[in-house]
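User: Please predict the structure of the protein below. I'd like the answer in structure-token form so I can feed it into my own downstream comparison script.

Assistant: Understood. Taking the following sequence of 64 residues as input:
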Amino acid sequence: MAIKPKYIKQLGNVLLERYPDSFNTDFETNKDSVTTLTTVESKGVRNRIAGYVTQKKAQAAQKA
């Protein structure tokens, strides 16, 4: 697993805190949510944030 940059983790955590119902374990849905909730213009950064959020949601689902 790759190490994520700090800004990816910070923004992902902020999005999860503010909009927990906007995200789930589906990457494509999370990608659309990141696009609508942020002003990130870079496709690569958007995908990294969506991937991080997806991973966090999947981990939370396994614990529950």
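That's the full token string. The chain has three helices and no strands.
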